Amino acid sequence: MSPKQKQHAGSSHASASAERREHLYKILVIGELGTGKTSIIKRYVHQFFSQHYRATIGVDFALKVLNWDSNTIIRLQLWDIAGQERFGNMTRVYYKEAVGAFIVFDVSRVATFDAVVKWKNDLDAKVQLPDGSAIPCILLANKCDQQKEGIVNSPAKMDEYCREKGFAGWFETSAKENINIEEAARSLVNKILLNDKLLQNNDTRDGDKFVIDHKIANGDSRDGANKACGC
Subcellular localization, per the record (predicted)? Predict the structure, then answer.
């Protein structure tokens, strides 16, 4: 390869690297004690399941790296927040800068479903997207390999519940049997990426609007000058 060809190959490689995008997203995994939050994270990140987890105290962390497409790497920082933490004062700190969440309940214990709305209200009160809207949140009906109690037996009622409470969707999951964990995560990441894109577009439009308004205010716009003369 000639020096010129090498230089061209090097510049092509550099431009390909420059186009590669990386994102780091903070995702919360919340819900009542014993609903399987830690098991879901272990299954998703390490493809591992155990019956014997100690209850999470405070908060724990895990990192999942996704090669989303040929140009995009996504790092998910999963925050495993203890079930009893909703009653503490630290959740505002834990929730800070999160861009997505899972709320988990146990399909075999209806009381854990009854608590879902309290977690959702707490979440919406303490963290929002930059435009003030709620972060996307997916409801996980976990342990679906066990006997189900309550409205989770009716998909139509679950759909209606999620619409009413502002969930971005819901999935029946099982960390033990590895059911729908990847699918739920992919759905949430898709919604996060969509929000990212919308926010970036809004920022661009706001920036353009500022430039145009600034020019008109200073008499730099030809269109603005013509309109002023025609009045």
Answer: Membrane
